[in-house]
Each structure stands twice: as C-alpha cells, then as structure tokens.
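Final report, closing paragraph on structural work. Over the funding period we assembled a curated collection of sequence-structure pairs, and we close with a single example.
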Amino acid sequence: MKPKFKFLALIVFLGLSLQSCSSDDNNIDENVDLNQEKFENIEIGNTDFKVPQFNPDLHTQFDYTGERKVTKIYYDINPVNVEEPNTGEVKWQVSNHLVDEDYYAGQLNSHIHYHVFFDPENELFPKVRPAKGVYSLKITIVEEDNSTSSITKQFEIVKKFSEVKLGNNNQVEYGSDELHTEFEFDAGANTVSEVKYELWFEEWREGQNVAVGDWDTIVIVLPKSLYENQNKPHVHYHMDVDTELPVGDYWLNIYVKESGENEAVKLSIPLSIIN
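Its predicted structure, as stored:
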C-alpha cells in the first residue's frame, strides 16, 4: 500500500504545482511594459511632455535599440486625469494606432519621429481637440521574431496659447516680405522670459546648410519688450520673410519660455504660401 500511496501523493503534488503555475500565468499584468531600456531620448510634445491644445497633433520622437528589425509600431493613448470636455473637446483615446511602416521599415535601431492628428478627419485644422489634462501614451514595438517591447509615458495637454493668428487664415501671398503673427499666452503663476520663432521650410536654394528639398529653418528671438515679465502677454509681431519663399506648405514653431521652467512650451502651426 505504501508505494501506491506515494504514487498518488506525487500525482496530487504535481497537480497542485501545475495549478499554481497556471494561476500565476493568469495573474500576469498585460499592462506591464517590457524592455523599457530599449527606448531612449523620448519626446512627447517636448522633453517635458507638455503639449499645447492649440496644436493640430501630438509630436512624438524617440530612439529604439532592437535586437532584430522592427516590423510594427503601435500607439495607444488614454485619459488619466482629464477635465470635463468643453465644446469642441474630447477625452482623447486612440487604440492600436499602427504607425506607417515608412517610418521604420527595415531598421534595426530606429529613430522615430511621428505625429498623431487630434482630429484625423480634419488633420491640420482640427474641429475637435483633447480636453486639458494628463494622458498616457503607450508605445509597443514588434520585432521580426514577434517579440514585443513597450513603454508607457504620461503627457499633459495644456491650455497655454489662445487667439492665435498667422497670416490671413494661415496663408500668406507669394512675394510678401512679412508674416503677421499674434497670440495670447497664459503662464499662470510664472512670467514669460523668452519667445522664439522657428520657421520650417523645404530649402529651394543651392549652397545652403542643407540640400535642396531638405527641411531648413529660420530662427528669430522676439524683442523682450513684447512679453518680458508678463504672465499673460498679448504678443503681436510681424516677422520678416524672404520674398522669394516659394509657394507651398510651411510650419511655424513658437517657443515660449516661462520663468522657473526647464523647457519652453512649443506650439506648431501650419502655414501656406499661395499665389
């Protein structure tokens, strides 16, 4: 009887062990990020993870060091601590958004620079924007062997800019020598210490810092008299532009640095030069 008893006891022990392992597997948290160390130099809006609501989209940028080539990248965005939406606002959610493979196809160590539109139907001029508050962005990367890595970061949608005007409804006629700009900024308890403009355009001239067809920039720091030591400045400035800037699409980045903050808040606005 003793050998039989020991055999039955062994079966019971193995059964309990398998059940315990199965139970442990069921308790694995699918929301836990994997291989976070593969992600570096992350920007969401900027390195402070602040995104102006007046943007048309969410700017993201990061470096990924993989063991095999990247085959898929997914974004998931969810509200964490968000105010009740006003008219034209939503608690922004994006599920399993597949980043276009043109941004990473065939790459082992990828540098990803990607924008997610707030309102995909209206893209550059959204009719709906995220409500103010804190959101999470989860980035999931799949490599050639179907292994996955992911990282989750929180970012903040901020209402810093308002009454933004650029040219005539974001358009400027070809041959103009200036760009009309105007906006209001709310620094809260801080004051504004610097405002900088950065005009992005596709270079059309030979012999410049970048090749013809690549993106180039013009950077201007605005006079301090327009904003310095003010917490809610109304900035009205006419920016000099080259009269030979070709017809096409441009971007104006506005950087506003607040006292006591490490990084400027960056607003990106689309602009077109038209005939």
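The chain has one helix and 18 strands. The CA atoms of residues 15 and 202 lie 67 Å apart. We thank the funder for supporting this effort.
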